[in-house]
Amino acid sequence: MNKNIGAALILALGTFALGPVLAGNDRLTEFSNQGTIGNTRHNLTQRPTDGSTAINAGMMEAYRNDYQQVCVYCHTPHAANTNINAPLWNRTVRTTTYTLYTQQTLSQDATQPGPNSLTCLSCHDGQTAVDSIVNMPGSGGYNGALALNPSAGTMESLLDTWRLNGGDPAAVTHQGLNSDPNSETSCLGCHSPGKTSAATDFTVFALGTDLTNDHPVGVKLPAGSDWNVPSGTFQNIRFFDKDGDNRPDKNELRFYDSGDGFEVECASCHDPHGVPGTTSKFLPTFLRVTADGSQICLTCHVK
Ligand code: HEC
Ligand code: HEC
Ligand code: HEC
Ligand code: HEC
Ligand code: HEC
């Protein structure tokens, strides 16, 4: 075991009583949130691309394969996962039945999340390790038979075959955003209150498979005067075309049709690469439209 991993393990096991440095509702991030996804929390190499200091990269090395590329945790240029209708998708997507939002005020039954939510849920539902990808960097890193038909055990062993700079692959465990902080395979083993004090609390980001307490996905715009109606249509996207260029831009909220009509999905409201606001910083929480004054809500809802 090398020194870095040893130190990380000690920190993982230690429960320091100092309390979290950043409170759970604190939006602070060590990344600059500017310019590219490389400077956001969606950079799982933990090495910002703007040249600022690595984010405790040493400590993180033992908990996910460090592929040293930003996009590869989600996309691959070749041999993508075509089981899901998402752009050059490189992640394992498990067949999961989600518990849907069911308040009786809803005017329709929500349908199961479509591809434009399943991409996000492939990390945020905690069922799959964040480094679980179909095509790992370098030669020999592809095993379609295993990766496209995942079953927990075999997937682990595939990920175990990857190594960085000749390092010991067995020293790396593959963790997910499992909502149980006591699970041996959860990132929340550090990133939750009472665990490693230096690690940000991620509890609220671990959505799980129960979506009853989340804004509904798999829902269409109901008829009636309670709604603004988007003007633009492009392929399977209907969108609020703010600049009238007939293209769904990243700062334009949208509905996706994956067979059940135009529906709200995770990517209706969020762009996982970050969207600039009025300052040079990205809008918080990867939103396409700011939540200031509830502008995002009022784009769809007339309230
Ligand atoms: C954390 C996961 C994640 C990472 C990392 C990521 N993407 Fe994406 N990307 C997505 C998702 C999810 C979509 C589909 C969004 C949707 O449903 O509309 C997407 C869509 C795209 C698209 C097509 C639609 C669009 O938004 O333009 C391009 C091009 C793209 N990504 C490029 C990149 C590049 C280049 C990188 C690395 C610099 C990258 N992505 C990193 C998740 C990611
Ligand atoms: C490769 C895994 C992965 C994928 C795919 C992914 N995320 Fe994340 N996301 C993370 C991680 C890791 C974090 C940081 C901590 C956490 O959420 O536990 C994060 C953080 C976030 C945050 C909180 C950001 C903040 O600063 O408050 C939001 C919002 C988010 N993701 C939304 C999405 C959406 C929406 C999608 C799909 C369009 C998506 N993510 C796809 C891994 C992923
Ligand atoms: C050994 C404890 C430990 C484990 C396990 C761990 N992390 Fe971390 N992580 C840290 C520390 C410490 C930091 C730096 C402090 C901070 O920013 O939270 C950090 C930072 C991060 C950040 C950047 C937070 C920011 O500043 O925006 C992300 C994203 C992240 N970790 C994701 C993950 C993911 C995904 C996993 C599971 C694969 C994971 N971590 C597992 C300790 C850990
Ligand atoms: C109707 C718009 C909308 C949809 C759809 C949506 N979100 Fe969000 N999401 C938001 C807003 C707004 C916030 C910011 C909440 C805040 O500031 O507290 C947010 C916050 C988050 C966060 C940060 C945690 C938090 O509560 O602050 C994560 C992670 C996240 N969303 C993931 C997802 C995923 C995954 C999906 C799909 C299952 C999704 N979102 C669907 C609007 C949406
Ligand atoms: C992309 C469009 C869109 C955005 C943005 C959006 N919503 Fe919704 N919302 C919908 C749709 C469509 C429904 C389903 C309505 C129905 O079937 O009755 C819905 C449902 C709801 C419901 C449940 C209503 C019920 O009857 O149970 C609430 C509450 C809600 N939204 C609040 C919000 C808030 C708060 C925000 C901002 C954080 C927001 N929405 C942003 C489209 C949107």
UniProtKB/TrEMBL annotation:
Q: Name the InterPro entries for this protein.
A: Multihaem_cyt_PRC_cyt_su-like, Multihaem_cyt_sf, Multiheme_Cytochr_ET, Paired_CXXCH_1
First and last residue of the signal peptide: 1-23
Which keywords label this protein? Signal
Q: Which residues form the Doubled CXXCH motif domain?
A: 265-302
- Protein name, entry field: Doubled CXXCH motif domain-containing protein
The species this protein belongs to is Aromatoleum toluolicum
Q: Which SUPFAM superfamilies match?
A: Multiheme cytochromes
